[in-house]
Amino acid sequence: MEHSSAVTLALADASAFDAFKQELKASFSVKNGFREKSIIELEQIGIHPEAAGRGLGKQLIVESLAPFKAHVRRQGCDVGAVMVTTSEGNFAEKLYQSTLGVSRAAVISGYGAGDEVILYNASVGPERGE
Fold this sequence. Notes:
- The chain has about 130 residues and is α+β, with helices and mostly antiparallel strands.
- The chain has helices at about 15-20, 55-75, 90-100, and strands spanning about 5, 25-30, 35-45, 80-85, 105-110, 115-120.
- A six-stranded mixed sheet has the order 1-2-3-4-6-5, covered by helices on one side.
- The longest helix has 19 residues, at about 55-75.
- The two termini are about 25 Å apart.
């Protein structure tokens, strides 16, 4: 059984974040079914270019990870790992590394318009998203 908590964020400016942050979340999903230690994936997050560089992406990830981990726990499971993919050269890779503790696990060459980077953290402890 797969569950997803999916809302994509696109903001015209940073002030919109405060007005809507109770309703906005980054998109996480369980990738390997609900098991003792599930793998979750950050599927989607987007910040309008005019609002970039203000910490909104990090805030969205941090504020949505804990509730999603709680959702997984309510299913009788725990989060064992987190993964995210991004295009080669995307500045978001550094955000994911610093926020989720992920590192490069693989690169898929020729994926869509370019190469896709798979980032993975095999041990998502309580210090991340709790």
